[in-house]
Model the fold of this input.
Amino acid sequence: MTAIIIVTHDALSDAIIKTSKAIYGTIDNILAVNFDVNEGLDTLTSKIENAYKQLDTEDGALILVDIFGGTPMNASLFAATKLQNVKVITGVNIPMVLEILGSRENCSMSELAEIAKDAAKSGIRVVN
Done:
């Protein structure tokens, strides 16, 4: 099962996981990494690497980050150069996470990356 690491500014990653658990139920092989703006890039990179080591990454790991070009993305990319079989995906949202959770038993990491991209986009709608 592909591991999931969610890396965001402040505690957004904790909130995404908490909300996903409320909807989906028990979730295995997922961790939140929170970026405090007072931390440096090296500290965040180390936190991501430590999260990776805590998870079962035999089938790879998706690192889901909040903003393209932000410190969580940059630190995730630096960490990915030291880790094996990792994909970094920006724009994390709850529809993305729920779709990944529902598909990761039967899909490869590369397939999950595409599912994540599609779910994130389709989760955004103007409803009135």
